[in-house]
User: Fold this.
Amino acid sequence: MTIDTCLAKDLITVEQAREALLQAIAPLQETQLLPLEQCCGRILAERATAQVDLPPCDNSAMDGYALCGQAAHYALVGRSLAGHPFAGRLGNGECVRITTGAALPPGADRVVMQEHSDLHGDTLTPRQDTPAGQHIRRRGEDVRCGDSLVAPGRPVTVPDIALLAAAGVRELVVMRPVRAALLSVGDELRPLDTPPADLSHGEIYDSNRIALATALRELGIETVDIGCLPDNPGSIREGLEKARDSADIVITSGGVSVGEADYTRAVLEDLGQLDLWRLAIKPGKPFAFGRLPKAGRETLFFGLPGNPVSALVTLYQLVIPALEKLRGIVDGERTPPFQGRARLLNPIRKAPGRTDYQRGYTYRDTDGLQVVESSGLQGSHILSGFSRANCFIVLARESGDRDTGDWVTIEPFRAPLG
Ligand code: AMP
Ligand code: MG
Assistant:
């Protein structure tokens, strides 16, 4: 086994880094009132209360007949359709035709399904026993008027929207969105609208900025594009100041490593402070975190490595958990991504020293066994394998090579990666 080339003992573990980020971050306080249709994915800031009972009245769970009392035969006296309740009251031995969701007439105490009864003229004969209360949905059994519906501090989901709409809630108080300023650093980077023929030798497209912006927008975060800066301390300083003043957080990629042209950290330390740098994570070791003070508040700084796989892995594993707290998601709701076990279909190289987030493809084989295969080359510049992958293969810091047939931990991608 080869020991990882970096001095592993100097590196901060992923867990320590996540904890430190959460400690350093205070949730945003500002809220806004939004119409319900704009609230999905937003963090609820205040309780919403039901305006009506759900169901609003006792009603039928089936298409059939609403009956009064226990009898062998019932006299059909009318009908109650959804939206058109029966006007009268049922006496013993009487019934009405009823549709699903239609109001139960006063006096009715049970429902028999259409399929379980015979109608001859105006006489209904149930073919089965019909106990009292059968197929009746009770008023308020789901929600009572005045009930508090969704707990604040978590993203509003589609089922929440359904519940709130059903309960007559038309608008919600939600947290204002986080604003993130994005910038790339590197002399070799060119914007995406550069024709391929115009790229000089060694120049590459700036793919990180668009990938990061897309991921963040997927999470409902507003992005401010500061652009692509050259490896030059003056430009980086200007860019960081602009980013600091226009957003709650700044996310940079590139220029945080130890190369000759890596100035981002030095500029950050000049304008603010560096809290964290160099993690025991692969890919993503040069990840940096710090703060840029400004009037009233500070802007958080996340410096992602330039390598495109490293940038997205550190976004997913570190920045997004931190952003969840900043967005206003409360402790119990900030759940880590689901992890499971899968059997390896190929051997994996792994040097002890850092936690690896290798890219894999997991599926259930024909025997129903969860298996995973490496999605190809694992270099931090290999985007094709990342694009083919649907999970991380998470390999503990001290573990070494793994063999075909070994059980490994997988972490299926969820938004914004998959
Ligand atoms: P750095 O972190 O600046 O040392 O960059 C590491 C690697 O990532 C180099 O190969 C860079 O060319 C590449 N890189 C840096 N920034 C970007 C970017 N915005 N998009 C794509 N690749 C990048
Ligand atoms: Mg660079």
Summary: The chain has seven helices and 24 strands. Helices lie at 14-24, 158-166, 207-218, 233-246, 264-271, 308-327, 383-388. The pocket of magnesium ion (ligand 2) is lined by residues 186, 254-255, 261, 306 (CB under 6 Å). The longest helix spans residues 308-327.
